[in-house]
Specification:
The complex is a heterodimer of chains A (316) and B (241). Helices cover 72% and strands 1% of the residues of chain A. Chain A is mostly helical and 316 residues long. Chain A has a single domain, classed as ABC transporter involved in vitamin B12 uptake, BtuC, CATH 1.10.3470. Chain A has a two-stranded antiparallel sheet. In chain A, helix 2 packs antiparallel against helix 8 and helix 10 packs antiparallel against helix 11. The relative contact order of chain A is 0.17. In chain B, 37% of the residues lie in helices and 17% in strands. Chain B has nine helices and ten strands. In chain B, strand 7, helix 6 and strand 8 form a beta-alpha-beta unit. In chain B, helix 3 runs parallel beside helix 5 and helix 4 crosses helix 5. Chain B is globular and about 60 Å long. In chain B, 45% of the residues are buried. Classes of the chains: A mainly alpha (316), B alpha/beta (241). At the A-B interface, helix 6, helix 7 and helix 8 of A face helix 2 and helix 3 of B.
Amino acid sequence: MNRGLIAVIVAGLGLLVLPMVLVSMGQGFYLGLLTRIMIYALAATSLNLILGYGGMVSFGHAAFLGIGGYAVAIAAQHGIGTAWVAWPMALGAVALFATVIGAISLRTQGVHFLMITLALAQMVYYVFVSLRGYGGDDGLSMSRRSSFGWEAWWPTRGDTGFYYLVLALLALALLCAHRLVRSHFGRVLIGVRENEARMSTIGYPVYRYKLAAFVIAAVLCGLAGVLNVELNRFISPSVMHWSQSGMLMVIVIVGGLGRPWAGVVGATVFLGLEEVLSHYTERWQLPLGLLLLALVLARVAGWRLPRDTGKSLQHV
Amino acid sequence: MRKQFGGLRVTDGLHLQVRPREVHALIGPNGAGKTTLVHQIAGTLKPDAGTITLDSLDVTALPVSARVQLGIARSYQITNIFRSLTVIDNVALAVQARRGHSFSFWRPVQSDTALRDEAATVLDRLALTEHALRPAGSLSYGDQRLLEVGIALATSPRVLLLDEPMAGMGPQESSRMVEMIDGLRGQMAVMLVEHDMDAVFRLADRISVLVYGRIVATGTPQEIRRNPEVVLAYLGDEEIA
């Protein structure tokens, strides 16, 4: 058994027992923080798929976080409180929307792609700002979390039960993402990142593969958006502001672009630091920014974990 | 096989036919339109007029990827490989491309032994087996050139377009390339664009001479050597030894 697998099992077991420890210590607040970190880890993992592996610099990823979240909140407002209806609807809406955004923006590359995804995402942001019926600027609340019908033995409406739900979904998503990047499809994605022109001259209809990857990543991010609104029982357009897309990018870059654990590592470091620093100062962004700058510079300067040498496929 | 062009000034009323399984060299001075022709046959440039046919199938309107599926592959004059991937992964990607779609999301590529075996066969042909697990960018220049051709070869083409495979190579490296191309004879049609006349006259079954977008002569190496027009336009005095 390799060290990586052991680390995953230890971390997984730790996350399984942590809620009991926290609750017994009366630190229930940290349960919410951990859940939030896991949700952003999921969102960042989805961005890492297209940014880190596919080389698509999307600056509008937070739009999917917002659309997924809003779909659930809007369904709840119309009396749909069962997750079995609201969640698939939300993910379907994200998939549809991502297909449209992707089909348009993937006709371009590089900076143009970045600008178009940014512009389309901002359009969505302003649409939700102007939706008075659904709270507009002020956002939309849900009276309670969606129900799965299994509350009797897994109370996902409570904070601890919901924590385990997020943990399970994150684990499942990570498993799928890890399989995907090693599959035939994943190889094509990495090939596109490395040399898109050559990929098309060796016979790949590159556009189709990029669009498929874009939609898959969007749906994963939409799931994070669904979990996010269920966690807070509240959503506002600020979730999909461009600065949120930027934050997701920073999380992925901190975690290590194109590395399998980038989303988890990045979200833990970023949100953890944010939490710690905001205890000491209101201006926590400054030290956080400096720390991230140092981290990225150190990586550019060639700092690497010793185990990573030889895993050339995962590097950008 | 029949490929025709017209309209583009760099390809000016050109008619060229590459026969199945022959090595057909295309020579001509710089700016004659050789690379442009390769682009048009491969599909990265569209001709303004005229048709490109593979066997009796008109492929003029097909995108690059569809042409590869039908068996037209090219290599580049300027090395265009996946530098940070391993040598075998470079070739395996090309093998994978030809085997239909890659919308397979769960099964690891590593477990696809048929893919690995086929990629290994291609590496064997290139004599690059010992470097299989090195990043392609770390190969010597000559080996990178061989891999460049190998990626095209791995798509199992029926027509292989080689755009100056010997570009920038020393004599020793060139002879490895010549040997490798010689080994392809009889298995596929090879259209060889090359300035290295020793290689051209050694390898080609037939030679076409392209000047200002037109074919001025086509024939066997002997016929081309003796063609006064060709000698005047291109080969010059110092050439024929």
